[in-house]
């Protein structure tokens, strides 16, 4: 397995190295689907130039990365390509270990469930076997590294790759049960792009499960656990933000990073839902709708944490997907991160209903993005509505994908308990219907 | 959500899809084609109207009187041209400076990848001459281009007209935009060089001198081609590079001024008719529309204007025709038409954007917009989706007992699908690169010219691709046969749908031509059933293969060339058709290298491999 992982890594690095040397770099790094105003490499370089000139990089309306990233590249600017390739490798390896570890957890849980006879007798086809689980970690790494979205993100040197690496390490720390490291990296991820704050809930649940803390809001152990994790997270966040303040000696980075993310002033088209909507809207409704759109990202966290209380890893996946869909400046790099988790839910395949349609939708809309962009911007014959239509199709595809997986997951759990061949009251074969 | 999750209803839906698949596909095809045919029927479609405010409401009166001057300039031009043996650059510069224009020249050179035998050129060197009439009323931030491609024999009247217009416009006070009078050498190559230098980009490896004078952003361009002293009618061509079209308002502008001056105007060389509702009228407009579809689908620019479109500049080519009609128009009327058009363009407040960019023209009085023609394509693409769904349902219906052993075969089956896909795309790459690389070697060993070498090598590689299935299938495990071909067909059908969808958005005509021909081929492609008796198996397979060859990209090209000449009322024999096919291949390769047209690489990199995949499906064991 390790040998295959190394092989995959070598292939992935080679592909990236070749692309870095090709003439496509220019084209890829200009694509609005790959880079957003938040994470475009051009802006990082501009910020570095401003820093070297002794001007605050946040004084203009150009640079929106966090100070720590800026200082990271202050030292590593000459090795940027290596840094980005290394980030992808780190993410892939972290996800590989996560999948490996998670497999063991799943297997142990399953054995315990069998010993206590929690499962219905006829669910043998639903039970996961070590044989089918053996290749999952490798598939996860493969899905991340060779996903065209990840390759494009890396070649465009979008700092989204760094965010992904931080999130992957955070998940790794959570899976390994280290509450402190998990909090540190969650704080880093939240510091980088704000939205990962929503991952607090799944991480908390996972850690509770790992440390055998019963999830119950009335039990003091759980409340203590919650408090401990929250304090660690907030403390780390404070430390990092203060560190940024001391680096720059000003708070100006707060409005131009978090303010920029939250108030969505830059309406450059991207694969998200914000730009068209806010470009079309009457200005005096803006604040209201910004709030509605932003709350949307965090809105699902609470119901999901109730429903998926016992399945924090799946919760993590769904939450990552929701962030990638509803964040204000999404790029394909965000999509690639949650797509890497798909092999972990291979066993849900028989319950997926629309996977064919959704796959077709996602692939065709990702191919149509550049075509319609060309028609709109270069040929001048189409307009923004054409492009937004594809954006909508892409997002609807993503939402269907996530809800399909969610439904399949819930349904499998139901069948595990109730048995595969359901009988209705009159003894006939019954069906499960979602209404 | 009920429909999506209720297994009973889903079952009904999938049963319907699988049982009714063939009739549904057939109906979709009929619906798509008849919808398309219906587009030419005048009562179904919209009448032309001008959307641009600045051009609609304002009046201009044309007083052009320099008709004789135009003809004398033309004579002088051709005399100097004959003396110099090429474009009379010095004379043009002198004359234009004499008229008070700011005159510049621009030299360029370009070596073609292989000799162009139709136009007899290989190493092209030329000079563009252009004069800018600076507007008296505004800073030089916007301009209008009037251009004509000049050679020794052709277009001297257009050059004369341009000079006469320049001298006439010089004395007028209306101008709010600079007017550029451009005489481009070596038609499209010169135009490409001029445009690239004007916008200071270099996309096609052309060497050209630095541009000395500019006149702001170009709002619109009109290319004029006139080769006779009097004209009977004007023909307008709109199709640009890659099938891009100018804004419909520019066409409206042209028709309205033709009508105002009583000049006959045609499109695709077809006269306008008033009996759109009758059968003859319908057939006439159908012919006109089909001609437009064939021209647009070729992706070739039908005049020098086609290159402007890429730079966001609306442009048309207007040709003066001198036929055997009795009533002829002199240069005064001709000049008035252009004067009026330029005056109206001068009134523009912003770039033309109000009207349509996606349209088909069955006549100059009616147009088909994108909303009307897209359903025709939608019906056709639906066939592929229905087929794909059918295959998907059949694939997922593999019984559970065999699923365990299928699980073990997941990897080989994945590989066995990837091999043909990979090989087909390698064939596409070979088809693109090999002919140009081994052009020299081919001419050494065979008695052919450079151009023939390239074209014939391309065709040889193309045909060689057909022999491949026999190589790829031997390496594949045979037990996965049924599963294998269905997966491969599923992939190729979806791939084709994606490709057609993309190209239709860019160039509807090309997409539609490919859809009409390739979709039946894709829908019917499948290997001979195992149950077929031995004697009937080869017959079955041969029939399928023949049908697929009939619908292969190069046969489509052949049929299009034949149809084009039939419609243009210039029938040709099969041998001539073959000659024209070779020319067309050579020209599309040249177009790609000279002007970066996308049709050739698109067909070679994507459509051809996709077609080869279908070929593989037919020959799957």
Automatic annotation (TrEMBL), chain A:
<feature type="transmembrane region" description="Helical">
    <location>
        <begin position="229"/>
        <end position="251"/>
    </location>
</feature>
<dbReference type="Pfam" id="PF06728">
    <property type="entry name" value="PIG-U"/>
</dbReference>
<keyword id="KW-1133">Transmembrane helix</keyword>
<feature type="signal peptide">
    <location>
        <begin position="1"/>
        <end position="17"/>
    </location>
</feature>
<feature type="transmembrane region" description="Helical">
    <location>
        <begin position="71"/>
        <end position="99"/>
    </location>
</feature>
<comment type="pathway">
    <text>Glycolipid biosynthesis; glycosylphosphatidylinositol-anchor biosynthesis.</text>
</comment>
<feature type="transmembrane region" description="Helical">
    <location>
        <begin position="354"/>
        <end position="379"/>
    </location>
</feature>
<protein>
    <recommendedName>
        <fullName>Phosphatidylinositol glycan anchor biosynthesis class U protein</fullName>
    </recommendedName>
</protein>
<feature type="transmembrane region" description="Helical">
    <location>
        <begin position="179"/>
        <end position="208"/>
    </location>
</feature>
<feature type="transmembrane region" description="Helical">
    <location>
        <begin position="314"/>
        <end position="342"/>
    </location>
</feature>
<keyword id="KW-0256">Endoplasmic reticulum</keyword>
<comment type="similarity">
    <text>Belongs to the PIGU family.</text>
</comment>
<dbReference type="GO" id="GO:0042765">
    <property type="term" value="C:GPI-anchor transamidase complex"/>
</dbReference>
<feature type="transmembrane region" description="Helical">
    <location>
        <begin position="257"/>
        <end position="278"/>
    </location>
</feature>
<keyword id="KW-0732">Signal</keyword>
<keyword id="KW-0472">Membrane</keyword>
<feature type="transmembrane region" description="Helical">
    <location>
        <begin position="141"/>
        <end position="173"/>
    </location>
</feature>
<keyword id="KW-0337">GPI-anchor biosynthesis</keyword>
<feature type="transmembrane region" description="Helical">
    <location>
        <begin position="385"/>
        <end position="407"/>
    </location>
</feature>
<dbReference type="GO" id="GO:0006506">
    <property type="term" value="P:GPI anchor biosynthetic process"/>
</dbReference>
<dbReference type="GO" id="GO:0016255">
    <property type="term" value="P:attachment of GPI anchor to protein"/>
</dbReference>
<keyword id="KW-0812">Transmembrane</keyword>
<feature type="transmembrane region" description="Helical">
    <location>
        <begin position="285"/>
        <end position="302"/>
    </location>
</feature>
<dbReference type="InterPro" id="IPR009600">
    <property type="entry name" value="PIG-U"/>
</dbReference>
């Amino acid at each position: 397995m390790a040998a295959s992982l190394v092989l995959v890594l070598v292939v992935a690095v080679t592909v990236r190295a070749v692309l870095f040397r090709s003439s496509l770099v220019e084209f890829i790094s200009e694509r609005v689907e790959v880079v957003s105003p938040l994470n475009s490499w051009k802006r990082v370089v501009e910020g570095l130039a401003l820093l070297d000139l002794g001007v605050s990089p946040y004084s203009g309306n150009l640079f929106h990365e966090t100070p720590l990233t800026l200082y990271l590249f202050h030292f590593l600017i000459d090795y940027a390509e290596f840094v980005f390739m290394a980030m992808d490798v780190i993410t892939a390896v972290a996800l590989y270990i996560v999948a490996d570890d998670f497999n063991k957890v799943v297997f142990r849980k399953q054995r315990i469930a069998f010993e206590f006879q929690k499962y219905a007798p006829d669910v043998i086809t639903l039970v996961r076997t070590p044989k089918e689980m053996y290749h999952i970690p490798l598939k996860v790494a493969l899905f991340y590294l060779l996903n065209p979205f990840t390759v494009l993100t890396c070649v465009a040197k979008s700092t989204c790759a760094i965010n992904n690496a931080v999130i992957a390490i955070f998940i790794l720390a959570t899976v390994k049960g280290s509450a402190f490291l998990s909090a540190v990296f969650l704080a880093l991820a939240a510091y980088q792009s704000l939205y990962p704050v929503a991952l607090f809930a799944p991480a908390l649940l996972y850690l509770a499960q790992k440390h055998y803390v019963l999830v119950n809001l009335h039990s003091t152990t759980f409340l203590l656990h919650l408090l401990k994790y929250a304090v660690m997270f907030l403390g780390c966040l404070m430390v990092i933000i203060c560190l940024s303040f001391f680096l720059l000696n000003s708070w100006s980075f707060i409005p131009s990073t978090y303010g920029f993310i939250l108030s969505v002033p830059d309406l450059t088209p991207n694969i998200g839902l914000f730009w068209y909507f806010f470009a079309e809207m009457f200005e005096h409704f803006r604040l209201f709708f910004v709030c509605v759109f932003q709350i949307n990202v965090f809105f699902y966290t609470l119901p999901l944490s109730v429903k998926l209380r016992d399945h924090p890893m799946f919760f993590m996946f769904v939450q990552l997907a929701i962030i990638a869909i509803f964040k204000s400046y999404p790029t394909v790099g965000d999509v690639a991160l949650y797509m890497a988790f798909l092999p972990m839910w291979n066993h849900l395949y028989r319950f997926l209903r629309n996977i064919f349609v959704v796959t077709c939708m996602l692939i065709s809309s990702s191919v149509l993005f550049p075509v319609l962009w060309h028609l709109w911007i270069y040929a001048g014959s189409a307009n923004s509505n054409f492009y937004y239509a594809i954006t909508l199709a892409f997002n609807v595809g993503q939402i269907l994908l996530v809800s399909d997986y969610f439904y399949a997951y819930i349904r499998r759990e139901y069948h595990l308990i109730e048995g595969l061949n359901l009988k209705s009251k009159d003894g006939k074969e019954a069906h499960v219907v979602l209404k | 959500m009920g429909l999506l999750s209720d297994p009973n209803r889903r079952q009904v839906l999938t049963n319907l899809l699988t049982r009714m698949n063939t009739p549904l596909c057939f109906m979709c095809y009929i619906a798509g084609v008849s919808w398309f045919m219906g587009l030419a029927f005048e009562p179904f479609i919209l009448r032309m109207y001008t959307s641009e405010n600045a051009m609609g409401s304002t009046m201009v009166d044309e007083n052009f009187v320099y008709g004789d001057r135009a003809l004398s300039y033309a004579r002088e031009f051709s005399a100097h041209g004959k003396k110099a043996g090429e474009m009379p650059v010095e004379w043009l510069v002198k004359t234009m400076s004499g008229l008070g224009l700011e005159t510049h020249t621009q030299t360029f050179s370009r070596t073609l990848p292989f000799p162009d035998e139709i136009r007899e050129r290989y190493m092209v060197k030329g000079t563009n001459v252009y004069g800018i009439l600076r507007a008296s009323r505004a800073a030089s931030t916007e301009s209008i281009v009037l251009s004509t491609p000049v050679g020794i024999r052709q277009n001297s009247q257009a050059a004369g007209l341009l000079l006469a217009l320049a001298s006439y416009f010089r004395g007028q006070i209306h101008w709010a935009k600079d007017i550029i009078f451009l005489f481009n050498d070596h038609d499209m190559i010169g135009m490409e060089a001029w445009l690239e230098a004007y916008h200071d980009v270099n996309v096609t490896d052309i060497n050209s001198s630095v541009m000395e004078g500019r006149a702001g952003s170009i709002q619109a361009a009109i290319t004029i081609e006139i080769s006779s002293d009097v004209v009977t009618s004007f023909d307008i061509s709109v199709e640009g590079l890659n099938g891009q079209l100018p804004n419909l308002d520019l066409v409206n502008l042209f028709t309205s001024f033709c009508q105002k001056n009583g000049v006959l105007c045609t499109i695709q060389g077809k006269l306008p008719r008033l009996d759109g509702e009758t059968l003859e009228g319908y057939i006439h407009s159908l012919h006109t529309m089909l001609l437009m579809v064939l021209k647009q689908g070729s992706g070739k620019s039908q005049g020098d204007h086609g290159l402007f479109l890429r730079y966001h500049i609306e442009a048309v080519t207007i040709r003066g025709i001198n036929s055997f009609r009795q009533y002829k128009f002199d240069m005064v009327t001709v000049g008035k038409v252009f004067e009026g058009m330029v005056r109206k363009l001068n009134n523009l407040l912003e770039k033309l954007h109000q009207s349509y960019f996606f349209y088909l023209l069955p006549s100059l009085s009616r147009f088909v917009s994108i909303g009307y023609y897209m359903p025709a394509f939608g019906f056709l693409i639906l066939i592929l989706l229905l087929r794909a769904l059918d295959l998907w349902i059949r694939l997922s219906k593999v019984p559970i007992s065999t699923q365990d052993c299928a699980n073990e075969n997941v990897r080989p089956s994945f590989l066995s699908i990837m091999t043909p896909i990979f090989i087909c795309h390698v064939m596409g790459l070979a088809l693109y690169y090999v002919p140009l690389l081994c052009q020299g070697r081919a001419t050494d060993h065979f008695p052919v010219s450079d151009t023939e070498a390239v074209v014939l090598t391309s065709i040889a590689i193309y045909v060689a691709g057909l022999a491949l299935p026999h190589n790829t299938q031997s390496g594949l495990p045979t037990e996965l046969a049924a599963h294998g071909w269905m997966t491969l067909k599923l992939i190729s059908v979806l791939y084709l749908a994606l490709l057609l969808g993309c190209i239709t958005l860019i160039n509807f005509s090309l997409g539609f031509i490919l859809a009409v021909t390739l979709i039946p081929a894709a829908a019917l492609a499948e290997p001979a059933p195992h149950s077929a008796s031995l004697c009937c198996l080869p017959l079955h397979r041969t029939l399928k293969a023949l049908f697929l060859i009939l619908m292969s990209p190069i046969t489509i090209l052949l049929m299009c060339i034949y149809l084009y000449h039939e419609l243009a009322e210039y029938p040709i024999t099969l041998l001539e058709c073959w000659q024209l096919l070779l020319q067309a291949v050579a020209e599309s390769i040249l177009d790609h290298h000279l002007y970066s047209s996308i049709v050739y690489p698109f067909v070679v990199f994507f459509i051809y491999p996709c077609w080869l995949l279908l070929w593989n499906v037919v020959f799957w064991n």
